């Protein structure tokens, strides 16, 4: 599998794992080890475990791009997971912004309500 396809898969996996942890209030590290064992790809590790270390900071940064009538915690867990994973990917400078935003929009089209992709695009873009 080429790097771009692998990153896309790991990005989606990261969103799913972060979503599960937000929903179930589980520790991300423990959850990942339960799901895939000790052999966690470094890219996936960064998008999940490293991201959670900066979660509060990332939420604050994301909140600056949200309309004043809205707060981060009003988003559903899947939207939160997409925003956190993709924001961390941008913050850690792991991929080009266009690629990350495009994939965030695609993930929101796949997992969220019909028009959520516009909101995700606006926040990350």
For the secondary structure, the number of strands is: 0
Q: Look at the structure and give the CATH class.
A: Mainly Alpha
Helix segment tally: 7
Shape: globular
Please summarize the sheet with the most strands: none
Low-confidence stretches: none
Q: Please state the second-level CATH architecture.
A: Orthogonal Bundle
Structural class: mainly alpha
Task: Kindly report the CATH topology.
Answer: N-utilizing Substance Protein B Homolog, Chain A
Instruction: Bin the helical content.
Output: over 70%
Provide a descriptive summary of the structure in words.
The protein is mainly alpha-helical and 125 residues long. 73% of the residues lie in helices and 0% in strands. The chain has seven helices and no strands. The chain starts with a helix and ends with a helix. The relative contact order is 0.14.
Strands, helices and their partners?
Layout: H1 3-24, H2 28-36, H3 42-53, H4 55-63, H5 77-91, H6 97-111, H7 116-124
Helix pairs in contact: 1-3, 1-5, 3-5, 4-5, 5-6, 5-7, 6-7
List keywords for this structure.
125 residues; globular; N-utilizing Substance Protein B Homolog, Chain A; mainly alpha
Q: In a nutshell, what does this entry contain?
A:
The chain is mainly alpha-helical and 125 residues long. Helices cover 73% and strands 0% of the residues.
């Amino acid at each position: 599998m080429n790097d771009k396809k692998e990153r896309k898969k790991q990005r989606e996996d990261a969103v799913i794992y972060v979503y599960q942890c937000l929903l179930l209030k589980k520790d991300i590290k423990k959850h990942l080890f339960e799901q895939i064992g000790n052999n966690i790809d470094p890219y996936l590790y960064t998008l999940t475990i490293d991201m959670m270390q900066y979660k509060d900071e990332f939420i604050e940064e994301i909140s600056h791009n949200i309309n004043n009538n809205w707060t981060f915690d009003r988003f559903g867990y899947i939207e939160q997971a997409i925003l956190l994973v993709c924001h961390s990917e941008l913050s850690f400078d792991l991929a080009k912004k266009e690629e990350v935003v495009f994939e965030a929009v695609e993930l929101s089209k796949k997992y969220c309500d019909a028009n959520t992709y516009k909101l995700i695009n606006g926040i990350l873009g």
